[in-house]
Each structure stands twice: as structure tokens, then as C-alpha cells.
Amino acid sequence: MADALGRDVQVAIIGAGFGGIGAAVRLRQAGIDDIVILERADEVGGVWRDNTYPGCACDVQSHLYSLSFAPNPDWSRSYSRQPEIWAYLRQVVADFGLAPLIRFGHEVQAAAWDGAALRWRITTSRGPVSAAVLVVGSGGLSEPAIPQLPGAERFAGRAFHSARWDHSFDLAGRAVAVIGTGASAIQLIPAIQPQVARLMVYQRTPPWVMPRHERPYTLAERRLLARFPALRLLARGWIYGLRELLVLGLRHPPLMALVQRAALQHLAASVPDPALRARLTPDYTIGCKRILLSSDYYPAIQRPNVELITAPIAEVRAGSIVTADGVERAADALIYGTGFQVTSQPIVGRIRGCDGRTLAEHWGGSPVAHLGTTVVGFPNLFLLQGPGTGLGHSSVLVMIEAQIAHLVSALELMRREGLAALEPRPAAQAAYVAELDRHMAGTVWMNGGCRSWYLDDTGRNSTLWPGFTWQFRRRVWRINPAEYLLTAATSPVVAA
Ligand code: NAP
């Protein structure tokens, strides 16, 4: 029987960001056309649609931070800004004719595996849909994390998260408090500093900051890249190779001393005042938290209208913030640059497997997946950017594309062998996760002396891949049927 969305489908994809869009393109190229993309917003783009804060840009160079099958010789600068990346993704949707697949305003509220029908029963905000295969492309950085500061509910000014920027609020001439000094905050602080009257930066942990060597591409360079695709590949390969070198240091923390020295030199050259410099100097090994790239953060922090505050926030009042040292500072706006719910994403509480329990219940706060992509007890479920696939050094799109290759390979296997369902064997998943944890043990993320959002509630690093990205790709891109439990179909599930 047809469902509220018109029909049952072979593949339902949650999210129209880089992951969902990339998966849809690759599936169609493999001849799998019966796809629906369920997108809760009314535009494609994922984080590049949601993050519109001033100064938002990518800290991976665009020729690497783009889909391998959709190269763009026309990037305007080495590190693109949010509007250009968002426009690129919309262009990919147009170029590959994906618009008819996307259902905007369809938030996935629940998805349950129907063991009798061997299908996913999905409840969206606009009605149900069923699918043989469910792909989760909702991203790891989609749900803002807003800390429960004492008294925050009493704040009478504007308060918003960096990923939900309130463009209706004019910051000009205002007293503005920014909480956090992570990747988002260090971009927005220099961008808003010239407009505001006072900027108070509440820092809990100083980040390591390296200079950001960026520049616009000349018209001649762009024409050359368009004319000679091999040059574009060379540029991509060069960026990729240089970034992979960092893995050596992330895996062997003593090697990070060189990088740390360069960051200290950047700090020393940028901040002459020793007292301020001391407050901006991290006390953990570089790389333990994400290394930030900025050439304008340290200059901004030293502008006369900016104050760096390192005393913990004790209380928020109607028009001010009070720190633990008793100082009260008036504020008209409170901007949370406090990151995302990475290891506790709401979507994992909405997906129920064979035993009726959710992914969140299975994981108990510490996510695991076979190859970061498939999960025991959750047949025909594919996670893009699942556990252990994040990166601290390169383009996450490289990882997503490897996972998409796995998905396509799995669906081709299902088609070839006439399978209705597949899920990883418990032993295969357990061995993979143990191997991942073993490699993780010696890394800077576990031994660098910091507490980062990469670690889950149990202290495990269930977020990152602890190796070279080519190692992940080699391990993942083609499915090994021996690692999976296969269920034969009585009628074809993935049609030819
Ligand atoms: P983030 O890196 O998690 O930083 C959050 C900041 O808020 C940290 O400084 C954190 O301090 C602080 N914070 C959190 N809770 C707090 C609390 N209760 N009280 C005081 N301070 C608190 O978040 P993000 O900057 O949004 O970046 C998240 C990720 O998004 C990045 O790692 C990156 O992967 C991605 N991103 C990338 C770019 C880029 O490409 N340039 C830009 C933005 C975001 P602690 O360090 O003490 O926890």
C-alpha cells in the first residue's frame, strides 16, 4: 500500500547535507534510483546552511573540502567561506538533478525495523514512509549544545547559539558576551569585534591556534584549473598529502612538539603582553583538541573593546553575567559558541533495531559501529559520519565518501545475491571496535592532557578515526560479505 509520501522506497536518506547528497548521487550512479531524502529544514546544506554566523568558513582547503565526483575549479579562495560552500552544495543538487528526491520539512521522528516485512518503518513530521534501506546522513554537528548556566533563563537580552545566528539582532554598539573559544567562536569574534561596543570573551580552555595562510585564487589560476583537470587533482592531492602527515603526530604525541613550537611562536609574535599571553597559552598537548586556524583571532582579542575573561561563569542575570571572582559585566547579547551534541545526538534515540531498543539504548553513551557505518541488530542501516569516522586533521568528506562507497557496495551485493537484509556479525563489529580502541590508546586525544568533545561519557574516544584516511578508505570502501549476516529475499529488495 502506498504511504503518505506517495510510496514505499528502496532507500530513505535522512538529511540533505554533504552526506545525504553525496550518497544519493553515488546510489543513482550505481543504478539505484528509488530514493527519498528526508530533510527537516526547507533547504539543502546541513551545517553549511545552519551556520551563518559572521566569519563562518571552513578550515580545510576547498579543493579538498569538496566531493571528489563534483570538482569545482572556481573556488574563489584557498579556504572558502560558508556562503560559497553552501552555494556549491546547492549546485551539486542542481547538476545531479536531485531536487525531485528531496522532501523538505520532513523531520524523522522515529524509525523502527520491521522484522516481518524486513523494512524500515519511518515516521516523519509529515507522515510515514517505509524503506528497505535507511541511511543516516544527519551529521555529527547538527544539534547545538547549550550549557545550563545558572540563571540563563532570566537573561532579558538576546541569546543564541553560533549555529542559530539571530540575524534580526543588530550587534552594532552593543555589549556582547561570547561563551567559548572553539572553532566557531574564534571565527565570529574577529568578525563582530569591529561592530560591537564591548565584546566579552568567556574562555574556559585556551585553544591552540595556528596561522591561517589563506589567499584568494587569481582568475588565471581558476582558468588553469578549469582547463587542466590534472592540475586540480594535483592541488587536491598536495593538500591531502600534507594534511595526512599530521596523523604521525596525532598518533605519536611527542612528534607534536614541532607543531606546538610553531603555535607558541605564532602566539608570541601575535600577543606581546606576557600576562595576556599566559592566559591564552593552553596547558595540554597541541592536537588533543582540534587545532584552530586563525590569523585574526589574537589581534581581535587585543582590541581595546575586547576583554578576555577566564574566571568561570557563576551566574547569568537579566542584563549581566557574573563570574566566580564576583565581577559583574553588563551584556545586551549572549552568544553561545559552545559546540554541538556529538556523542549524544537526538537521532540515535529515534532509531529502533530488531529488539525494539534504540541505538542510544544499545550504545549506553558510547557509540560503536562496524566500520563506523553499520550496527549489530540494525539491519540495512548505514550511518554516515558514524562512530570513529571524525577527523582532527583533514576533510571529513574523504571519510564520508568512503562510507558511501561501502553503502553502494552493500546494495550491489544485495542486488546481486538477492538479499533482503544484512547486518554486521557481532564478532566482526567487536573485533573492529577493539582494533579501533587499540589504535586510539596511544594518540594525543587520549594522552594529551585535555578533555575534548571527542570523548564520550565513558571517556572513550568514539568520535575520531585514529589513522590515515587512506587506511579507512581501504578498509571500508568495498563490503566483505564474510563480516555480515545475510538474509535472503523472497522478492527483490534492491531492484536492478
Ligand atoms: P567546540 O569546538 O566544541 O567549542 C566549544 C567551546 O565552548 C569551547 O571553547 C568550550 O570550552 C566552550 N564551552 C562549552 N561548554 C561550555 C561551558 N559550559 N562553559 C564555558 N565554556 C564552554 O564547538 P565549535 O567551536 O562550534 O566547533 C565544533 C566543531 O565544529 C569543530 O571542532 C569543527 O569540527 C567544526 N567547526 C569547524 C569550523 C571550521 O572548519 N573552521 C568552524 C566551526 C566549527 P572547553 O574547550 O573548555 O570545552
What are the SSEs and their pairings?
Blueprint: E1 9-14, H1 18-29, E2 35-39, H2 47-50, H3 82-95, E3 102-104, E4 108-114, E5 119-124, E6 127-136, E7 158-161, E8 175-179, H4 185-192, E9 198-202, E10 209-210, H5 219-227, H6 229-251, H7 256-270, H8 274-280, E11 292-293, H9 297-301, E12 306-309, E13 313-317, E14 320-323, E15 328-330, E16 333-336, E17 351-352, H10 359-363, E18 381-383, H11 396-417, E19 419-424, H12 426-441, H13 444-447, H14 469-476, E20 484-488
Parallel strand pairs: 1-2, 1-6, 2-3, 4-17, 6-18, 7-16, 8-9, 8-16, 9-12, 10-11
Antiparallel strand pairs: 4-5, 5-6, 13-14, 14-15, 19-20
The chain binds NADP nicotinamide-adenine-dinucleotide phosphate.
Word description of this protein:
This protein is 31% helix and 18% strand. It is an alpha/beta fold. The strands form five sheets. Strands 1, 2, 3, 4, 5, 6, 17 and 18 form an eight-stranded mixed sheet that branches. Strands 7-16-8-9-12 form a five-stranded parallel sheet, with no helix packed on it. Helix 1 runs parallel beside helix 11 (396-417). It is globular, with a radius of gyration of 23 Å. 45% of the residues are buried. The mean pLDDT is 96. Bound molecules: NADP nicotinamide-adenine-dinucleotide phosphate. Residues 57-59, 141, 147, 162, 179-185, 187, 204-205, 290, 337-340, 453 line the site of NADP nicotinamide-adenine-dinucleotide phosphate.
